[in-house]
Amino acid sequence: MELQLQPLNLPSDQERAFIIAGPCSAEKEEQVMTTAKQLAGKGCHIFRAGVWKPRTKPGGFEGHGEPALLWMKQVKEETGMLTATEVATPEHIELALKYGIDILWIGARTTANPFAVQAIADALKGTDVTVLVKNPVNPDLELWIGALLRINGAGIQKLGAIHRGFSSYEKKLYRNEPMWQIPIELKRRLPHLPVVCDPSHISGRRDLIAPLCQQALDLGLDGLIVESHCDPDKAWSDASQQVTPEVLDFIVSRLIFRDKAEHSDKLKDLRHEIDELDDALIELLARRMKICRNIGEYKKDKGLTVVQTRRYSEILDKRGAQGSLLGIGRECIKNIFENIHEESVRQQMEIINK
Ligand code: PEP
Ligand code: MN
What we know:
TIM Barrel; binds phosphoenolpyruvate; Chorismate Mutase Domain, subunit A; 2 domains; 50% helix; binds manganese (II) ion; alpha/beta; 354 residues; 8 strands
């Protein structure tokens, strides 16, 4: 599976990552223009604002629609920033393009619905606009990739993804769990696709935006989209996760933008060492499995059960403790041994049922 991509060529101060900023919603002309001018003054090049807002329950502010697009146009004319907004239907696309919006993003709720994504893809045919696809609300990488394929299949080549975290029933530290392994796997599967992190919707809290931005950059993501409002506490949506342009500028000024190039000899040497250790690890695992199969034969002979829970708990406890003494998290060791155990049970079952 390949995407046909062209570079996004988005402007950025920071050579290696671009930053999109602006309020969750376009509320009033004055709020939009004030925020945009403050952001432009801090060197921001791309302005976001929601013009149509997908709200969980009816009764919330659902966006002004077309009148707000006029303010976005004004932002572009008066500040020179590019503009970005969320679209969810073919009508949204038609209107957004009519007002010269440069970047369209597909929201998390929309990405989860292949009918809606296909309708959007059909409406995008023949246009050359930049499209960013947010991950679906549920942690389903294939659904996310499916949406990207639909949009790309419509001929959109200036395409990227936005990682905004995944919703869960149990609310923990984050509003939406980052589950970093998913955007990382997306990058592995589609190496040329730019991936942008949305720390505002992941965290739901302004104090967590800075560390999430740094984490995203450290993991090699390509850009950030951050909610910024001239008066965050008075925002009509997502108030708790927005920061002023001034605070955003402070956050960005402290970020470390790392080099993604993989050219140094030192790095090559270290990776070579890792490869050798990985070889040895697999070799050892294979030897361990062989013994497990011998045990399987023995259990079959003696009519014993495959899973002997006392022995299994003993392994998890003992190795968990050993791992933590050596600086490896107990949970990590537990997960590794659970996987190893699962495979040896599978192999022993095969033997017993032969
Ligand atoms: C937004 O960007 O304001 C938004 C509604 O995001 P999401 O689709 O990620 O919830
Ligand atoms: Mn929002």
